[in-house]
Amino acid sequence: MSQPPDAIELRPSSLQLRWPEGQAELPAPALRAACRCGSCRAATLRGEPHVPAQGIRLTGAEPVGQYALQLLFSDGHDRGIYPWELLHALGQQPVVD
Fold first, then answer.
1. DSSP count for the chain of H helices, then E strands
2. For residues 16 and 69, is the Cβ–Cβ distance under 8 A?
3. Which of 20, 52, 75, 82 is least enclosed, having the fewest CB within 10 Å?
4. pTM listed for this prediction
5. Are 57 and 28 in contact (CB under 8 A)?
6. Angle at the Cα of 62 from the Cα atoms of 57 and 67, rounded to 5 degrees
7. Which residues have CB under 8 Å from 60's CB, separation 6+?
């Protein structure tokens, strides 16, 4: 899935996406934990995956060409690029509280 969703709604607590086959609601903490920027990947490789702060919120989203969103978080993190394929895959996973 490399096409953008049909609709995107950014809420402080989640990113809601509507795809042709259905909708997905991605909680802000799950998105922050799934960040694939260089520093987050390096921490994961060192065995130190990021655990989002309680109450983390989405503060913004910027398109990256036609293939992704750059998400901005309340902890100041703004380096993660989230391709449509990743967001679609995250939407297929069960939500864990």
1. 3, 6
2. no
3. 20
4. 0.89
5. yes
6. 115
7. 10, 71, 72, 78
pLDDT band at residue 95 under the 50/70/90 scheme: low
CATH of the domain at 20: 3.30.2020.30
Domain count of the fold of the chain:
1
**How far separated are the first and last CA of the chain, in Å rounded?**
26
**Domain annotation covers residue 63:** yes
Could you count the other beta carbons within 10 Å of the beta carbon of residue 86? 17
The CA R_g of the chain, rounded to the nearest whole Å, is 13
* Chain segment 3-61, per-residue pLDDT in tens: 899 999 999 999 999 999 899 999 999 999 999 999 999 999 999 988 888 899 999 99
Instruction: Answer yes or no: is 20 within a domain.
Output: yes
Q: Give the torsion sign (CA, 28, 34, 36, 39).
A: positive
The domain in which residue 75 lies consists of 7-92
Report if residue 97 sits inside a domain.
no
